[in-house]
Design a protein that fits this description.
Layout lengths: L5 E4 L4 H11 L2 H4 L8 H10 L7 H4 L4 E7 L4 E10 L2 E8 L9 H16 L4 E7 L3 H9 L3 E5 L3 E7 H7 L11 E3 H17 L4 H13 L1 E3 L14 E6 L2 E8 L10 E3 L3 H6 L7 E6 L2 E12 L10
Parallel strand pairs: 4-5, 8-9, 11-12
Antiparallel strand pairs: 1-2, 2-3, 3-4, 5-7, 6-7, 10-11, 10-14, 13-14
């Protein structure tokens, strides 16, 4: 049977907040949640203390938050993705009781793990579920999750990227392809090896860059498309709507005051290998940034500067 259509929206409006409050006051909805019993009151206080029409930043403080919509564009639940080292923990709630038993939770899980693996580069996605919550357990099993451990009251399910790809074999789900030149790859690998030993760069930044390099398509510098961001490219970005012109440089050449971003910085790693026009959502210390690559202003390879 074909799973029902849902989509996840990262923008949380004031109206969404009031819908969440209503759901979280329903004891049947919250019976399996680990949140404090007065969570609806806490949200209500925050909402009444601000006049902003969009409250996304308030809901993303402890992870990434999404509203789940059905095919009629009606909110039916929410998803929370919380970073746990290199993994992500998923919490999902179908808050509209009229939509229980329709496999919408299964569909929402499917969309959530795509985001966790392909956008946030999770190594593993985890779900901690109370044993009595049979409906949720079935939904996660149907999405390829396996029991990792269990206690008296909880079962912890998980799925790795490899397990996920096996579970969707035959379906089309692709991460956006990125491209790195052979010269850039060689230089980056040398820097990675030295930084791993002398500790110039935080471990998480090293892991993020290694992940991007490992998934990249490696090309001859003379064959790279001129709209791809390579090392020492200068680009025009929109980051959460703010325009900025930056150069992507090696770590030793970084100079934030002159908009020279290290490839180890969150935004630097995020844009490496992407093409003009791409939109990326990337996890940083303050939350998730939406990065739109507006234009590649200068690319060394396109200018014939192959050894920059």
């Amino acid at each position: 049977m074909k799973e029902p259509f849902v989509f996840l929206c990262s923008e949380i409006t004031r109206d969404n907040a009031f819908t969440l409050i209503k759901w979280l006051k329903d004891k049947e909805v919250t019976q399996y949640l680990s949140d404090p019993q007065d969570v609806s009151n806490s949200i209500e206080r925050v909402v009444y203390n601000t006049n902003l029409p969009v409250l996304t930043h308030l809901f993303n403080r402890n992870g990434r938050f999404y509203m789940v919509y059905n095919k009629h564009n009606m909110p039916i639940g929410f998803v929370r993705l919380v970073k746990k080292g290199s993994d992500y923990e998923i919490v999902i709630v179908i808050g509209d009781r009229n939509n229980w038993g329709k496999k919408l939770g299964t569909s929402a899980i499917r969309e959530s793990i795509k985001i966790a693996f392909f956008d946030f580069r999770a190594q593993k996605v985890i779900a901690k579920i109370q044993k009595e919550n049979k409906r949720s357990i079935r939904a996660f099993i149907n999405n390829g999750f396996k029991v990792e451990k269990e206690s008296d009251n909880f079962k912890t399910f998980s799925i790795t990227m490899d397990q996920y790809l096996m579970s969707i074999k035959g379906k089309t789900v692709m991460a956006t392809r990125i491209y790195i030149t052979e010269i850039d790859l060689e230089r980056l690998k040398r820097i990675l090896e030295s930084d791993l030993h002398i500790g110039k760069v935080p471990e998480e930044c090293i892991q993020d860059l290694e992940h991007e390099i490992n998934r990249a398509t490696i090309v001859d510098p003379k064959q790279i498309s001129s709209d791809i961001i390579t090392m020492n490219s200068r680009v025009l970005l929109h980051v959460d709507g703010d325009e900025m012109e930056v150069s992507l440089v090696y770590h030793q050449d970084a100079d934030p005051n002159n908009n020279k971003l290290s490839v180890f910085s969150p935004i630097g790693t995020a844009i490496l290998g992407y093409s003009e026009g791409s939109v990326i959502e990337w996890e940083v210390s303050s939350g998730v940034k939406k990065i739109h690559i507006k234009k590649v202003l200068y690319q060394p390879e396109a200018a014939g500067d192959f050894h920059m």
